[in-house]
Amino acid sequence: MTKGSFVGRGLALAVILSVAGMAGEAFAAVTDGWTQTSWSYTVHKPYTLSLSSRFKYTSGTWYTWVYKTDWCMHSSCSSNEGKRTELRWNNNYTSGQRMWDSDMYLVSGTNEATVQQVFGGTSSATASQIRAFTASSGTYKRYGSQTLATGVNNVWVNGKVAHDANGNVVRIYINNSLKTTEPDRGNTTHYFKNGVYVGTASSTRSEMRFRNTKQWRK
């Protein structure tokens, strides 16, 4: 074996090891280091309607829909209160890290509907929101500004929302790709919500579906 061939083989081995290391890093799961935990929920729905009129769970899928002309979730509505069919998670927390993880299905025609929330903030009611719009064949945005994904009408898309309450940071992933890293809106009691919450500017009917829904903790 010549010195040159030894060096060549050594470089080849180094390249292989480097590529292998990069591949391991590239395929690291978003949930690595997290622990999946159980969760439960209460459904918020129009006060005047039965649960089955706006919600169903069947074959592992949650269906949530609402009309903007529906009543609010209380016996009396304020003038600016939105209409909703939402899963209100019973996971109140003030510290630590929580991750909401679910496949999401936006039914076409749904516009200006809040579909996922990390509730609780001091400068506003929420720490994070994902909203759905009809633009670009269906669009998810953080609140109404930052685009997370387009072309999402009538297709399943995985969303993950990781909240570090200690570090006051919320990260949103779409199909396991990090889309935003933003500060939350202050220390208070937090919990998750998902479904449809609409206002006067929303489409007449809004619908979201969810499956493979999980909670993770650190």
Task: Give the structure's gist in a few sentences.
This protein has one helix spanning 3-26, and strands at 35-37, 41-44, 55-58, 61-67, 83-89, 97-106, 113-119, 126-133, 139-142, 146-150, 156-164, 169-174, 177-183, 191-198, 205-217.
How many structurally independent domains? Answer: 2
**SSE pattern:** HEEEEEEEEEEEEEEE
Beta-strand portion reads: over 45%
Major sheet characteristics: 8 strands, antiparallel
Supply the CATH architecture of the largest domain. Answer: Sandwich
Poorly predicted segments: 1-24
The helix content, as a percent range, equals 10-25%
Outline: globular
CATH topology of the largest domain: Jelly Rolls
Please give the CATH class of the largest domain: Mainly Beta
Task: Give the topology, please.
Layout: H1 3-26, E1 35-37, E2 41-44, E3 55-58, E4 61-67, E5 83-89, E6 97-106, E7 113-119, E8 126-133, E9 139-142, E10 146-150, E11 156-164, E12 169-174, E13 177-183, E14 191-198, E15 205-217
Antiparallel strand pairs: 1-15, 2-5, 3-4, 4-15, 5-14, 6-11, 6-15, 7-8, 7-14, 8-9, 9-10, 11-12, 12-13
Keywords for this entry:
single chain, about 220 residues, mainly beta, 7-stranded antiparallel beta sheet, globular
What does this structure look like?
The protein has one helix spanning 3-26, and strands at 35-37, 41-44, 55-58, 61-67, 83-89, 97-106, 113-119, 126-133, 139-142, 146-150, 156-164, 169-174, 177-183, 191-198, 205-217. The chain has 2 domains: 1-30; 31-217, Sandwich (Jelly Rolls), CATH 2.60.120.200. Mean pLDDT is 90; it is low at 1-24. The strands form 2 sheets. Strands 1, 3, 4, 6, 11, 12, 13 and 15 form an 8-stranded antiparallel β-sheet that branches. Strands 2-5-14-7-8-9-10 form a 7-stranded antiparallel β-sheet, with no helix packed on it. The chain is built from 1 helix and 15 strands; from the N terminus they run H-E-E-E-E-E-E-E-E-E-E-E-E-E-E-E. The longest helix has 24 residues, at 3-26. It is 11% helix and 47% strand. It has 218 residues and is mainly β. The termini are far apart.
